[in-house]
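Dear all,

This email documents one entry for the complex benchmark we are building for the journal club exercise. For each entry we list the sequence lines for every component of the assembly. Then comes the predicted three-dimensional structure of the complex as a token string, followed by one or two observations. Please use this as the template for your own entries, and keep the labels exactly as they appear.
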Amino acid sequence: MKGNSGRQQLLDAVIEHFTDDGLADQSLRHIAAGVGTSHRMLLYHFGSKEELLVAVARAVEERTLDQFAAVSGAGEATTDEVVRLMWAHVADPALGDFERLFFALYGRALQGDERMRPLLGENIQRWLDANVAAAATQGVPAETARVHARLGLAVTRGLLLDLLATGDRAGTDAALDAFARHYSGTWCEATIESAS
Amino acid sequence: MKGNSGRQQLLDAVIEHFTDDGLADQSLRHIAAGVGTSHRMLLYHFGSKEELLVAVARAVEERTLDQFAAVSGAGEATTDEVVRLMWAHVADPALGDFERLFFALYGRALQGDERMRPLLGENIQRWLDANVAAAATQGVPAETARVHARLGLAVTRGLLLDLLATGDRAGTDAALDAFARHYSGTWCEATIESAS
DNA sequence: CCCTTCATGTACCAAATGGTACACTACGAG
DNA sequence: CTCGTAGTGTACCATTTGGTACATGAAGGG
């Protein structure tokens, strides 16, 4: 069985290493040196390099989903509120390196690496489902909630991509603010309240 | 201007190869075989593997900027119009593989690979500048245009990421439509930024 | 106290890697 | 014709690669 002791610990260390040093073109020996073990141990616990990468991808996905949960678990939420919360959480400079790792894995998974691809769809799907469920408690139709959650996620990810590339926090903040303002109080698209 | 003859031709072939086969963990020999040449030739024309990758990244960036130009060159445009046009262009399934390559490179550039990072910022910056210039001809203040262009780009990229992962064209279309509807006709009046 | 099981280190391997040396061709300019 | 220069093929190299074989260690149950 996948003993959560040594293996999990090692996996966390590998993720941290990738977070700092990038995951491109790393040999098992580099990784092992980076986490203070031998490449032999990585093979022992994960079987092969590819399986290691898959485990990393899976763990990173799990972690991002936890971040989502922390945000959407905050009770009531209109689209603009959720997006603002998510942005505040995700734009934290302390998380920058981890976000970079996420996008690096994501990009890699999009291209080939068949074993990683399903995770990506799941990632988004689970996020949408969670939001739909949350919205249901407010009597919001599932289809509407799904569309808005999807858009909110896209805005956040798109701006995060921008922020990580340009480092322009003020500019991306302003863009997110513009979005949230246009969506303030919006639950279903028919009800745009013209209050200021 | 390094001779646009052999080198450029080779570069295009490499990009096409990466588009089809992915760029992760490819050796010079794999690439060479994929484009019908020898790894010796790649070294001859590009000097080293890293320089090859940089050349690829630069060329891909150029290509995406051309895509942008094709969209924003279409005369008048409010935020929702530009976004709709851009989405229609970018969500074309025929471009899927290329977009995947773009995001793979982007993710890789975000992590390490110092020589690639500047390109990313430039990519966004040039897009924003182009939009600001276009908006200026309509008397739209630069700051406002910049914010909206930024948001539009983020929405498009975020939804594209979603589309490529999930393949859910209908869902992403709906999300983009929701966004565009909320922004329809928006130029400035709704976004008075007295402070940031 | 032995036996088994999980964990780890050492040594090794065949294959592949990025890069180089050198010889050769093609060809346009003088 | 000759010469220089750009392009290409062949052969090679030292190093590194992912992966394996085997011995060892530590823990725990019988």
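Observations: Residues 27-29, 39-40, 43, 48-49 of chain B lie near DNA strand C (CB under 10 Å from a C1'). The mean pLDDT of chain B is 86.
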